[in-house]
Structures are given as structure tokens and as C-alpha cells.
Design brief:
Largest sheet: 4 strands, mixed
Order of helices and strands: EHEHEEHHHHHHHHH
Helix content: 55-70%
Bound molecules: S-Hydroxy-Glutathione
Number of domains: 2
Radius of gyration: 17 Å
Distance between the termini: 53 Å
Shape: globular
């Protein structure tokens, strides 16, 4: 059966960027549909009656939700090219833990840094989380070792938000986590990453608009 793949996405979403990178790493041809989250398309609502969130991947007519689950699905279906998760069960469990940590800490504190009035306080928590990730990276080129993999892919989309975190959190990620910045620059040398990431200036403009709309001073 031919593989028909459609990604329903919204450009600033770090979750959607994960899926874009996974598709690029595997060289999977697909259609990209940009959703207006304030006016969701009939296709999106039909495929997402419960979840109603991007990203969603439609593979041969079947929808898959949640970026980390989508990436795991892609890795299992297209297992021959560029494996993303390690094959060893212990290392797989570790990789899943750190990807979940990114969602629970980096996304959580990052969002509070840019979208609330207590940006500086949230920024401190964000730096603590990034430092823990930097410790996990250690001296390795990538989180999984020599090759770009699942944890790298889970975290790198947030690099597009670093400028916004620094502005609203009044902090310098480069000064606090230099090894993490070196890792991000290493990831950016990969075309799958550089072509998928959102532009930092466009992201900060997006947050400025959101803050205005929500009346955050
Ligand atoms: C998060 C998806 C999500 O929050 C994942 O895919 O990893 N854990 C999920 N998507 C947001 C946009 S990105 O902030 C979304 O679709 N929001 C639309 C809505 O809530 O109506």
C-alpha cells in the first residue's frame, strides 16, 4: 500500500516541529496542512473529534495524535531509515523519560516565562530545567550519543523560543547553559532541523501579539 501521509500543523508549535523533523530525518514524503487554531478545518475536526490539537498525522487515512507518540509511530513504521529511539529497552525508557521531562519542564516553564506576568520567576525554573538537561547531555555530541535522536528531536524545537524566553525571562541561556547552546548549534547543522525550526524573530513577534491580545503587560 502506498504511504499517504498528511501533517496537520500550526507553524509556531514546537510539537509540530518535532514531527516535521522526524519526517525529514526519515525522508518521508507528505502533505503539510497549516491549521488556523481559531477556525479549525473540517478535516481537522473530523480526524480529531476528541483531541482537537495539532500536530496530527494522518497515515493512510488513520489519525495519530500527540507529537511524542507520532514520532514513536513514525520510528516504528519507517524503522529502516535513521532510527530515532535506541533499540536497547533501558535506553529507550531513559529517552522517553527525558522527552517527557522536556514537555513537563521546558514547555511548562517556558510558556509561563513568555505568557504570564511572572516571567522572571518562571525563567529561573526554566534555567534549572535546562541545566538538568545539560547535565544529562554531558560531553556527548547528542543526547543519544553519537547520533541525533529522540531526545534531541524533542528538545530542539524549543531553540526557536530561546530568544523569547530570554526577553521575557530576563535571562541569558548562552551564559547559563553554554554546552546546551553548542548542542543546539550542532543540531542546526542538520538540514532536517534547520529547515523545520521556526524563525526566532517571527516567534517573538507571535508572542508579542498573543500577550497584547491577552492583555499581559
Ligand atoms: C500538545 C499539543 C498542543 O498543545 C503534543 O502534541 O505533544 N502534548 C501535545 N497543541 C496546541 C498548539 S501548540 O501549543 C493546540 O493544538 N492547541 C489548540 C487548541 O487547544 O485549541
Amino acid at each position: 500500500m502506498a504511504n499517504e501521509v498528511t501533517l496537520l500543523n500550526a507553524w509556531p508549535s514546537p510539537f509540530g516541529i518535532r514531527v516535521k523533523i522526524a519526517l525529514a530525518e526519515k525522508g518521508i514524503e507528505h502533505e503539510h496542512k497549516e491549521e488556523d487554531l481559531e477556525d479549525k478545518s473540517p478535516l481537522f475536526l473530523m480526524m480529531n473529534p476528541v483531541r482537537k490539537k495539532i500536530p496530527s498525522l494522518i497515515h493512510n487515512g488513520k489519525p495519530i495524535f500527540d507529537s511524542l507518540l507520532i514520532v514513536q509511530y513514525i520510528d516504528e513504521v519507517w524503522k529502516e531509515t535513521s532510527p530515532l529511539l535506541p533499540s536497547d529497552p533501558y535506553l529507550r525508557a531513559q529517552a522517553r523519560f527525558w522527552a517527557d521531562f522536556v514537555d513537563k519542564k521546558v514547555f511548562y516553564w517556558g510558556r509561563r516565562t513568555v505568557m504570564t506576568t511572572d516571567g522572571k520567576e518562571a525563567g529561573k525554573e526554566l534555567i534549572e530545567s535546562l541545566k538538568l538537561l545539560e547535565g544529562e547531555l554531558g560531553e556527548k555530541p547528542y543526547f543519544g550519543g553519537e547520533k541525533f535522536g529522540y531526545v534531541d528531536l524533542s528538545l530542539i524545537p524549543f531553540y526557536s523560543f530561546f530568544n523569547s524566553f530570554e526577553t521575557y525571562g530576563n535571562l541569558s541561556i548562552e551564559a547559563e547553559c553554554p554546552k546546551l547552546i553548542a548542542w543546539a548549534k550542532r543540531c542546526l547543522q542538520k538540514e532536517s532541523v534547520s529547515k523545520s525550526l521556526a524563525d526566532q524573530q517571527k516567534v517573538i513577534h507571535f508572542f508579542e501579539q498573543m500577550r497584547k491580545k491577552l492583555g499581559i503587560a
